[in-house]
C-alpha cells in the first residue's frame, strides 16, 4: 500500500509538518512506508503561473496518482488552509483523489479556526474525488510546542488522536481485505444467483 504525505506549509519547519511527521512515524512503526511532497519545494513559478505542464508539477501529480492514501497537513491562515497548498491542489487533475482515502491535518493559533478543516479544506478534497475523508485533526499552537532544541513536540491528546487516525488507516484502508476480520471471498457478478 502506498501513502503520500503532503506538507502544505510555506515554511520548512512548522507545526503542521510536525503533525505529518508524527503520522509518518506511526505508520513506519507498523511497517508502512510513505512518500512526501513538500509543496513549498514544488517549483514556485509553476505554482504561481499555474503551469500544469511543468516537470515538477507533473512529477508531483504522478505521486498523488500512485498513492492509495493521502495525508495532507496545512497551517490555517485567516480561517483557510495555506495559499501554497491551494495553488498545488488547483494544479491537480479534477479526479486526482478518486478512490483515495484522505486524512486532513491542520494547525492554527487558536481553537477558533478548527472548522477550517470542514468548511475550507474538506470541500476541495471532495471535489477532487476523494473516496473517504477521515475526520480531520486540528491542533493549536499550544498543542504542538517548540522545544529548546528547536524540535516540535505533539501534546499527548493530539498524539492520541493521531494514534486513532493511524489505526483507522491501517484497519480500514491499508490492510488487504483478506486480512480483515470476517472478510468474505470476492464473488464475480456472473456467479451471483437470485431467487424470488
TrEMBL record:
<dbReference type="GO" id="GO:0008752">
    <property type="term" value="F:FMN reductase [NAD(P)H] activity"/>
</dbReference>
<feature type="domain" description="NADPH-dependent FMN reductase-like">
    <location>
        <begin position="1"/>
        <end position="141"/>
    </location>
</feature>
<dbReference type="InterPro" id="IPR029039">
    <property type="entry name" value="Flavoprotein-like_sf"/>
</dbReference>
<dbReference type="Pfam" id="PF03358">
    <property type="entry name" value="FMN_red"/>
</dbReference>
<comment type="similarity">
    <text>Belongs to the SsuE family.</text>
</comment>
<keyword id="KW-0285">Flavoprotein</keyword>
<dbReference type="InterPro" id="IPR051814">
    <property type="entry name" value="NAD(P)H-dep_FMN_reductase"/>
</dbReference>
<dbReference type="InterPro" id="IPR005025">
    <property type="entry name" value="FMN_Rdtase-like_dom"/>
</dbReference>
<dbReference type="InterPro" id="IPR020048">
    <property type="entry name" value="NADPH-dep_FMN_reduc_SsuE"/>
</dbReference>
<keyword id="KW-0560">Oxidoreductase</keyword>
<keyword id="KW-0288">FMN</keyword>
<protein>
    <submittedName>
        <fullName>FMN reductase</fullName>
    </submittedName>
</protein>
<dbReference type="GO" id="GO:0046306">
    <property type="term" value="P:alkanesulfonate catabolic process"/>
</dbReference>
